[in-house]
Amino acid sequence: MMDTMLLIFLASLLAGLLGAMAGLGGGVLIVPLLTMAFGLDIRYAIGASIVSVIATSSGAAAAYVRDRITNMRVGMFLEMATTTGAITGAFLAGLVHPKLLFLVFGLVLASSVAPLLAHAREETPEGVQDDGWSRRLKLSSGYYDAALGHQVNYQVTGVPLGLAMMWVAGLVSGLLGIGSGAFKVVAMDVAMRLPVKVSTTTSNFMIGVTAAASAGVYFSRGDVNPLVAAPVALGVLIGAGAGTRWLEHLHSRTLRIVFIPLLLAIAAEMVLRGLGIRP
Amino acid sequence: MASLVSAVLLGGVSLSALVLAAGLVLFLWRGPAELGPTSAAQSAGLPLSPYPTTIPGIWAGLTAADPLAVIQLGVLLLISTPVLRVATSVLLYVGQGDRLFSVITLVVLAILLFGLFGPL
Known about the structure:
- The complex is a heterodimer.
- By secondary structure, chain A is mainly alpha-helical.
- Helix content of chain A is about 70%, strand content about 5%.
- In chain A, strands 1-2 form a two-stranded antiparallel sheet.
- In chain A, strand 1 and strand 2 (about 150-155) form a beta hairpin.
- In chain A, helix 3 (about 40-65) runs antiparallel to helix 10.
- Chain B is elongated and about 55 Å long.
- In chain B, about 70% of the residues lie in helices and about 5% in strands.
- The interface between A and B is large, with 61 and 58 residues.
């Protein structure tokens, strides 16, 4: 048993490292790892994963908030939607057949490859006007962009659509035990037209709170097994910390070439299990 | 505001990581034999020993120096870190006299507490 725990710790460390280097967050590989390599019940895997998501995102958010790029007003407003979605997702996860969880997880994992393939987006969208919600909530803001070498001021639009998309992002996070950062970034990019740096850091800011909402449900339901959650959380925390640091020194293109086929293979395996083709 | 929120997040994660590590060390040191009766349910070779999932349960386990209760305390501290971050922002917005955002952050806090203590 202690051997298993040590293996879980080392595997989580590797998953956190790879996840952070690919810019996917530490959690996305944990559920496939625990279910397929260690044969753990998917509900315990999700319970351990969601706890590790809180650890990594809170550490990263602390740094981004200090850099003052995160739009905390946007984040806290949208958290009303992500937390409601997360609790709904955690509730549903307790009801549905585990096979359905495998199937949905595989499909979400496969779709998370899309942003990795996409070309660089508009750094700072032009001609965005505050909508009524944004004016009322005073969401427009600005930050100093070190890469561009000047201050970037921006306005915010599409708030109702952003809110609806955030509920879905929260639902996916609570159902599958992942941060669903990609969904959050898409909502802020496409619907609300925030600058890329603001949407990525604000997404990270919200992930911890979103995950805490569903983690509470998993914890009180008894789906967070301490002997799994502790090695996973510590492993991912250490791995993701190292991965973020190495990220700056590695060419992300070569990394993606390795990472995308791996993700697709894992996604396919999970879909096959969901369909009952694999045991 | 940013620096206080940042400090809460960093402090919470560091503290819970320490408690989790302490619980694991305690577990490895005392060994699984002293854990008491193991339930019949087995998963991946890990015994699903009874572990506390409520605050009174964790407290009772801590007074008995149960390693699993220490780990659960670490998990609970980790889950509480974002909750504490939201509570901090409620106070900061109230202090700034920003009524709209005081209400918004209070709603988020209520949802989080419902997740942790609600009937789901």
